[in-house]
Design a protein that fits this description.
Blueprint: E1 2-7, H1 14-27, E2 33-38, H2 42-47, E3 55-58, E4 61-62, E5 78-80, E6 83-85, H3 90-101
Parallel strand pairs: 1-2
Antiparallel strand pairs: 1-3, 3-4, 5-6
Helix pairs in contact: 1-3
Length: 112
């Protein structure tokens, strides 16, 4: 499986997003690769249906799709459990990976 991480150079958040994505892939024990896609022009933003940096896509479908007709070189924010951030949390990415690939929630051991 290949996951695209779309970003642009001026984005201050894409490296943390990449770290969180790699952690989520490892924690879910997935055989997945990450392809970095640097968006450099407004036309590339349109071509990739770029919703802002950083964005995560599999087969051209964004993990957090929104309906919009205009695409541009912009930063993106995510509503995380710790407030608005420039990247999703590891747990948010793990949930998207589980949803996308039909993985079950990990079973938590019962105390006592």
């Amino acid at each position: 499986m290949k996951i695209n991480l779309l970003y642009f150079d001026g984005c201050p958040s894409w490296q943390q997003a990449l770290t969180n994505l790699k952690t989520a892939i490892t924690e879910e024990k997935l055989d997945a690769s990450v392809q970095l896609i640097k968006v450099t022009t407004g036309q590339e933003a349109v071509d990739h249906r770029f919703l802002g940096s950083p964005s995560f896509q599999v087969e051209g479908v964004d993990f957090w799709p929104t309906h919009q007709d205009r695409f541009s070189m912009s930063c993106r924010v995510y509503a995380t459990p710790n407030g608005l951030k420039g990247w999703p949390s590891v747990e948010m990415l793990r949930q998207k990976l589980r949803d996308k690939y039909g993985l079950e929630e990990p079973v938590m051991p019962q105390a006592g």
